[in-house]
Predict the structure.
Amino acid sequence: MTIKIEMLRCFGAVAQTGNLADAAERLGRTQSALSMTLKQLEERLGQRLFEGERKNRLTPFGQEVFRLAQQQLRQFDDTIDAIESAANAPQGLLRLASIPSVSSLVLPSVIDALTERHPSMNVELRDMDTSAVIETLQQGKADIGIVSGRPPLNGIQQSTLLEDSFGLLCSANHELAKKSEPPCFDEVFASDFVRNNLCSLIEAPEVKAALPLAKITVHNTHSLIAMVRDGKWTTILPDSVARFLPNELAFRPIAGLVEKRSVSLLIRERTQFPQIVEEAAEIIRRLASKRYPATATGRDAEH
């Protein structure tokens, strides 16, 4: 017997709720039908998924099946959403995925310009970190991606969109914000420093040596900014991120840190509406060059 997607959905609902009654109500099925489905799944797998009959505790094997099943269900549901979006957008569909700093910098203007040209066009925008943008592109869920760094990817055109400098971000009342000279590495990491994902892009030996020693790592930008606004904590971020932060925060260069963060524009080679994708890419390049005139935006696509 083939394992069907609905079997995994039924199993996932029971695993999440811990009982048949709540799972059945969530799925709109009877408890007996749900119980039969679980029995068929266990028979197909040849192992028990739950410890005991109450369905409130997974076996170690059941935990692994649950993890894999959730991944498959998310992918399946995303695929169905993409198919329906494409079917409902005969006049055009543009799917964008971008890191937050650039998303807020250029994408509102891009969407405004494109929807004026193509009033019936549909737009999907995802705001996420670099790894998630890359995954979204590779899975065919986005046509254009904007990421930090220069990741080599097959089937995706890549060019440099902009570059911006790294610097110290701290409260305007922090002692490092009040120094007349830019703080040095020792001063930055002697403070209550918070590590973030973008710090890993910095190759400076002083930074690479200090990052593993940071006791606090924050992955979410909003949480990171909230900590810095508290007045005690500091972090390192690119200039484009700091442009949209509250006035009570200070962005300062760091003595000896000359590296820049490279931001890349990624375009899938195969898209449903290539003309719209190319129009969007041109607008993104133009806006980035206006906002960052010192940056040479690339057209040298890498595959």
Summary: The longest helix spans residues 60-87. The beta strands are 93-98, 122-127, 144-148, 156-171, 192-195, 216-217, 233-238, 249-252, 260-268. Residues 91 and 119 are 9 Å apart (CA to CA).
